[in-house]
Amino acid sequence: MLILKLFLAYLLLSLVPNAVTAIFLLVAGAYWCHATTHGNSIMSLFGLILCLVCPVEAQTTVVSWNVGRNFTHNAHDILGLALALSATIVALQETGCSRRNLPAQTKDFHGWYSDSDPKGHHGVGLLLHTSLAKHVIKTDRHGSRGLSLLLALPRKHLRITTLHWPHTEEEARETRHWCTNLQESDDDQGFENIWLGDFNAILNPTLDYRAVTTHRHSTSLGPGLLADLTRWNAVDTFRLLHPSTMAFSRPHFVHGEHVSSSRIDAIWVSFGLAPRVRAAGVVDLHDHPTDAINGLVDLSDHLPVTASLDLQIPAPPVTSRLVHRRRFAPSKATAKQQEAFAAAISVVVTVVVDVLLVQVKRTCLG
After folding, report:
1. From CA 206, how far away is CA 243, in angstroms rounded?
2. What string of pLDDT tens digits covers the 366 residues of the chain?
């Protein structure tokens, strides 16, 4: 009996993404079995529905960061941030070097890059967790400013495009043309899209910009870029969830003086993905609960932006390396707390198994 209980618990924990979901399934299953055993068909049906609708969605965390030409020297720290955020998709801007000098494969991620320009400026990259990288079927590049991957997922095709939007109108026109060609092709085939990167434009001067001094940041590219994104049926993940919140990814300094803050880094999704956005925000490198992230405050003059989506794809395996959360560190739990948790799990498993056995006996004897 003990071996059977342990096997069922192990099997359940292996099939679901986390312990909370496992407990939910155990409780729902026990409720269904108990109701069935006592002949309550309505309660039995309700318990079965609980089992079927258990929230087991695997969220995909997307991160975008302008790393300020520091990737080659700080790749370990940047990948550490991605792991600490449980990221599946990481977009980088201003990698600042030839793609031949960048890591194509690490233990956890596979990388695609564009070259920087001849002066060592710009350059973009996309890192996909190895669990997702196997779905890439096509790569498109636009000089040192754009990189796009097309993925054939089990239920849909998804295009992920990272951009370092140009400052000049002429370069912006060329980048716009490249993006529009990709978008029109995707629309014809019903593909979903994620655009993420440093857009170098303030799209909402009221909410996405704050002047600290009289210095004013140029917003000349903002209206045109916003029109493009609107035409591509793109939705700003941050503004979708936080319609009136001010948050900034780019503190701007002139001669050491903080003159303004703006949100020019963003993650946009196609209209069909908008209902699947679960979270979005700017990663605070100054006061983050994760030690691996807190130490990166001086690496770039931009802050990472992040979004979580339910893309209905398998979640990557949990990686404990480099992840030390102050608030939820396992070492914080006392031995007595760990014993209490183990006992609670044991009780739930015992109830489920006992009720299942009673039901099986009654079915066989009846």
Report:
1. 12
2. 445 544 555 455 444 444 445 455 555 555 555 555 555 555 545 544 544 444 444 689 999 999 877 666 677 788 888 888 899 999 999 887 777 767 667 788 999 998 877 776 788 999 999 989 999 999 999 998 999 999 999 888 999 999 999 988 888 999 999 999 999 888 878 899 999 999 988 889 899 998 877 655 555 567 788 889 999 999 999 999 999 999 999 888 777 777 888 999 999 999 999 999 999 999 988 777 777 676 676 778 889 999 999 987 655 554 433 333 333 333 445 555 555 555 655 655 666 566 666 666 666 665
Residue 79's nearest CA partner among 326, 329, 321 is 321
**Do 238 and 260 belong to one domain?**
yes
What is residue 304's three-state secondary structure? coil
Residue 128 and residue 161 in one domain = yes
Which one-letter amino acid corresponds to residue 334?
T
209 plus 114 within the same structural domain:
yes
Q: Quote the CA–CA distance of 135 and 129 in Å, as a whole number.
A: 11
Residue 286 to residue 275: CA distance in whole angstroms: 31
> Which CATH number is 199's domain given?
3.60.10.10
* Nearest residue to 145 (alpha-carbon basis) of 165, 159, 170: 165
* Domain count along the chain: 2
Nearest alpha carbon to residue 196 among 59, 89, 84, 123: 89
Contact in structure between 131 and 152 (CB atoms under 8 Å)? no
Amino acid at the residue 26: L
Instruction: Give this prediction's pTM.
Output: 0.70
Q: Assess contact for 4 and 353: CB atoms under 8 A.
A: yes
Note whether residue 318 is domain-resident: no
Residues 166, 260: one domain?
A: yes
Same domain, yes or no: 215 and 271: yes
Q: Is residue 330 part of a domain?
A: no
DSSP state at residue 315: P
Within this chain, do residues 65 and 36 fall inside the same structural domain, yes or no? Answer: no
Q: What is the CB-side half-sphere exposure of residue 166 using CA atoms within 13 A? A: 17
- What b/e string do you get for 194-203 counting C-beta neighbours within 10 Å, with b at 16 or more? bbbbbbbbbb
Query: Domain containing 200: what range?
Result: 59-310
